[in-house]
From TrEMBL:
CDD domains: GT20_TPS. The keyword tRNA processing does not apply. Keywords: Glycosyltransferase, Transferase. GO terms for molecular function: alpha,alpha-trehalose-phosphate synthase (UDP-forming) activity. Probably involved in the osmoprotection via the biosynthesis of trehalose. Catalyzes the transfer of glucose from UDP-alpha-D-glucose (UDP-Glc) to D-glucose 6-phosphate (Glc-6-P) to form trehalose-6-phosphate. Acts with retention of the anomeric configuration of the UDP-sugar donor. It comes from Xanthobacter tagetidis. It holds the Pfam family Glyco_transf_20. Coiled coil: none annotated. Homotetramer. Belongs to the glycosyltransferase 20 family. It catalyses: D-glucose 6-phosphate + UDP-alpha-D-glucose = alpha,alpha-trehalose 6-phosphate + UDP + H(+). Signal peptide: none annotated. This is Trehalose-6-phosphate synthase.
Length: 493
């Protein structure tokens, strides 16, 4: 590219700032973006995870190796209206096909717009004219519009990590044109699956968009936006290595001893209604009711870090799932056997890798999920000589890639899931190996590096993207220690 070197500037609500003091937290976006950027380098801008009455005028910048992290704090009302309110009580349920759970409030929409304009103001202090911007997820839909209004003509791409439902459901969102319609201000909008992309293309049709002859871009309101499907991926080879090492750790050895030779079923999900945890527990209960021969021979470990706890629908789900877990154990436990271990802690990804490898079956059964990285991590972590079986919902984005190897289930069909669980537990080694190989070949062909390369090549029309240069002046710089964790839980300053 002629002139000044362009940098990649990634923007997302969550930023995985290196910080050894913070505990491991769950969340696929931060995991994926971190993996995509750490070799390539770039600037990663977003929320610090801190709430304060007096946010600074400038982002706080941290550098580590080739990465620069620039984060800003939010005020309490910003956090409530933008994050808990509009993002997580309106956009999240509607885009996950749960219009019934959406609680629209004009004040939350105003807060969402205010915070996005604030992000645009801060970004304006950081970006140069040649920088390439990659904005992530539903928290930031109108950001490109606000940057364009300030005169920024940069290449700006957007990737949606969660589903995009059909136009009828998008139209249930009050003022959808100002939010979802604002995606037309990006140069490229990426989705997890072709289905999500097609749903958005049909929405653009309803807004008078004109498709190009090859169907890859749309002209809307005088702008041209490209659309594409870029299924998010994992660091396949590195995760497989991590699992091999973890399986030799004291932590995993002790964990395996606690199983006393019982076959392990594992589930790993943020405590979110989209993940279908109640249906899964119900299906497990039916399995226990019908499969007495498996009593005392199986242990189901459900790892479920709490998430978005200030949002009422999440608090309700928390109470419901705890009650259900207690009921199952009350009904089926024996003095020397607990059929279900329901754990609300967050584990490091190394610990998870070891747990996945120790498992005979993973149940990944969301009612709707953009992708679900846990499904991919489980497969990558398996021992090729004795792989476990993945039970995967047809409504996870991951099912679009893994259907040749996973046992695909309908999370609304509880008997079907119970039967699939028995089939998974009893599946002979040759079938397990064949299914594992089919899934691994997909995960090896599309790993996280290819995901980022494909998106950025499409965004920049294949022009080379040099590694980032020095962080901008006029910002406070802190050098980080060499460890990082993804970080959702808000800190109140
Ligand atoms: O940041 P939180 O509110 O604590 O939530 C965690 C993240 O949840 C969502 O993750 C999505 O991205 C994954 C990676 O692409 C994908 O596999 C999964 O299906 C999605 O649900 C959310 O989209 C992120 O913004 C959150 O950070
Ligand atoms: O205790 C936990 C639970 C989950 N995760 C990670 O959080 C991510 C969850 O991503 P996924 O796409 O499955 O769902 P999301 O939570 O983003 O909707 C995965 O990388 C998990 O390894 C973690 O590090 N510790």
């Amino acid at each position: 590219m002629a002139g000044r070197a362009s940098r990649i500037v990634v923007v997302s609500n969550r930023v995985a700032v290196p910080d050894p003091a913070r505990r491991a937290q769950a969340g696929g976006l931060a995991v994926a973006v971190n993996a995509a950027l750490k070799e390539r380098g770039g600037i990663w801008f977003g929320w610090s995870g801190t709430i304060t009455p007096t946010p600074s005028d400038h982002p706080v910048v941290t550098t580590q190796k080739r990465m620069t992290y620039a984060v800003i704090d939010l005020k309490e009302d910003d956090y409530q209206e933008y994050y808990n309110g509009f993002a997580n009580r309106v956009l999240w349920p509607i885009l996950h096909y749960r219009v019934d759970l959406a609680e629209f409030a004009q004040a939350d929409l105003s807060g969402y717009i205010r915070v996005n304009r604030n992000f645009a103001d801060h970004l304006a202090k950081i970006i140069g004219p040649d920088d390439v911007l990659w904005i992530h997820d539903y928290h930031m839909m109108p950001l490109a519009q606000y940057l364009r209004e300030r005169g920024h003509r940069n290449r700006i791409g957007f990737f949606l990590h969660i589903p995009m439902p059909p136009p009828d459901l998008i139209q249930a969102l009050p003022k959808h044109g100002e939010i979802v319609g604002a995606l037309a201000y990006y140069d490229l909008v990426g989705f997890q699956t072709e289905q999500d992309k097609e749903n958005f293309a049909r929405y653009l049709d309803t807004r008078g968009g004109q498709s190009s002859a090859d169907g890859r871009s749309y002209d809307v309101g005088g702008r041209r936006v490209k659309l594409g499907a870029f299924p998010v991926a994992i660091e396949t080879a590195a995760f497989a290595r991590r699992a091999r090492h973890a399986s030799r750790s004291q932590f995993v050895k002790r964990f395996k001893e606690s199983l006393s030779g019982r076959k392990l079923i594992v589930g790993v999900d943020r405590l979110d209604y989209s993940k279908g945890i109640p249906n899964r527990l119900e299906a497990y209960e039916r399995f226990l009711r019908n499969a007495e021969d498996w009593h005392d021979k199986v242990a189901y470990v459900q790892i479920t870090p709490k998430s978005r706890t200030e949002v009422p629908e999440y608090a309700e789900m928390d109470r419901f799932v705890s009650r259900k877990a207690g009921q199952i154990n009350g009904l089926y436990s024996d003095v020397s056997w607990t059929p279900l271990r329901y754990v609300n802690r967050t584990y490091s990804r190394s610990a998870l890798a070891g747990i996945y490898r120790a498992a005979g079956v993973a149940m990944v059964t969301p009612l709707r999920d953009g992708m679900n990285l846990v499904a991919k991590e489980f497969v990558a972590a398996q021992d090729p000589e004795d792989p476990g079986v993945l039970l995967l919902s047809q409504f996870a984005g991951a099912a679009h890639e893994l259907s040749a190897g996973a046992l695909i289930v309908n999370p609304h069909d509880l008997d079907g899931m119970a039967e699939a669980l028995r089939r998974a537990l009893e599946m002979p080694l040759p079938e397990r190996s064949d299914r594992y190989r089919r899934m691994m070949s997909v995960l090896e062909a599309n790993d996280i590096d290819r995901w980022a390369k494909r998106f950025l090549a499409e965004l920049t029309d294949d022009r080379a993207l040099p590694a980032m240069s020095l962080p901008p002046a006029a910002v406070r710089t802190v050098r980080a220690r060499p460890d990082w964790r993804t970080g959702p839980a808000p800190r109140k300053a």
